[in-house]
Amino acid sequence: NAIPKLRPSLFGSHSANMKGEDGLRVDRLTIGGDVFTAALVVDGHGGHDAAALVVDQLPAVFAKYARSDASSENLQAAASEAFLHLHEQMQSSAFESTSGTTATLCLINETRGEITACSVGDSFAILVAPPAQRDLRTTELTSNPRLDDNESERERVKLAGGRIGKAS
To answer: Number of H helices and number of E strands within the chain?
Structure first.
């Protein structure tokens, strides 16, 4: 069953800030001669500063780490490096905030017809089939980190000294 090629498209969107801590950014990037639509969604926690920093800086930091290699493996590695770079920046005394954020970055390679998705924190990406298809299908593009759904995440929390239970 062949996956159809993605077609470049122009579209409009609307977003609303919830609690003033969330953000959205869509950019067009060229990496290694391939054209990408990069969609970034952040979910801030404890203030807007971390989310604002990631929305403002992640695309440029990511592009720097991606260099000129548009392979999915390199894009995932570049996203990890960019997430870590911004995390370290938020840990510095110059940041002056205790806020945090999740981030999900979806990279649509319009040249190759590929999607690469990367996330950090308790957010994740799901691809949903168009409504015109009778058989509505979804595909998880990143792992779901929610404790109810992810055994390896529960184990990671326990190994880090955390306890898992239901709030009463």
So the answer is: 3, 6
Partners of residue 117 on adjacent β-strands: 106
Residue type, 119: S
Separation between Cα atoms, residue 67 and residue 84, nearest integer Å: 17
pTM, rounded to two decimals: 0.77
Q: What is the pLDDT along the chain (168 residues), one digit of tens a residue?
A: 444 444 444 444 444 455 678 888 888 889 999 999 999 999 888 888 999 899 889 999 999 999 999 999 999 999 999 999 999 999 999 999 999 898 999 999 999 999 999 998 888 888 887 777 666 677 777 777 677 777 777 787 788 787 777 766
Specify the long-range contacts of residues 125-134, CB closer than 8 Å, at least 24 apart: none
What's the rounded Cα separation, in Å, for the pair 168 and 166?
6
Dihedral pair phi/psi, residue 2, rounded to 5°: -75, 140
10 Cβ neighbours under 8 A, 6+ residues apart: none
**Helical ranges in 67-111 per DSSP H:** 72-91
| Pick from 132, 59, 53: nearest CA to 88 | 53
